[in-house]
Amino acid sequence: MRVNVQKRGKVYQYRFEIPKINEKRKFINKSGFKTRKEAEIAGQKAMDDYLNGGINSNSNMLYADYLDFWIKEYCEVEYKYTTTKRYKESLGLIKTELGIYKLRLITPYMINQALLRLSQKVKTKAALRNYQKVIKSSFNAAINHFGFIEHDPAASANISRIKASTVKKRNKTYLFHRGNRKNIN
């Protein structure tokens, strides 16, 4: 298979053949390129995408860049305004923990370690759950919506159990156990 480039009027077009359907030849083509070189580059990229099953090379982007892309292209379309706003507020700490890694190289261990570090920075378990939701939702969209990666490293992300046992209220620490609370101070 090879990419053919031809001139059509004042612009160039690329074209390559794909397997026959119902004994008829089929082509993928696109026109409108100003130069022959532009058409060759775009045609080669389109053919590579076709041959690789459309696997996107954006999986090499940093997780921080992906989060910005995810908020703009997915959250603002799929979620309500308040949910998107809450997710945007969570991005700062998540980017400091996981933003330096490439999207396709993040492992479940890295996510669990990031959640552990986040549990030391936030005050409530609800806030920590929100960070976990953002991470899980972003990886879910990377797989199912965008197709950037093939497996979900956030599927087994766990919240530290240490955070669940104590809550501070007005300089008093309470320990909750089976519906009863005891003042520890």
- Tell me the number of strands: 6
- CATH architecture classification of the largest domain: Orthogonal Bundle
Question: What's the structural domain tally?
Answer: 2
Q: Please bin the fraction of helical residues.
A: 40-55%
Main beta sheet strand tally, sense and closure: 3 strands, antiparallel
Mean pLDDT: 82
Rg of Cα set = 24 Å
Class by SSE composition: alpha+beta
Q: In what order do the strands lie side by side in the largest sheet?
A: 1-2-3
Spell out the helices and strands N to C.
EEEHHHHHHEEE
The number of helical elements comes to 6
Kindly summarize this structure in a few lines.
48% of the residues lie in helices and 22% in strands. It is of the alpha+beta class.
Walkthrough of the structure:
The structure is a single chain. The chain is α+β, with helices and mostly antiparallel strands. It has 2 domains: about 5-55, no CATH class; about 60-175, Tyrosine recombinase, N-terminal domain (DNA polymerase, domain 1). Helices cover about 50% and strands about 20% of the residues. The strands form 2 sheets. It has a 3-stranded antiparallel sheet, with helices on one face. Strands 4-5-6 form a 3-stranded antiparallel sheet. The chain is elongated and about 65 Å long. The relative contact order is 0.10.
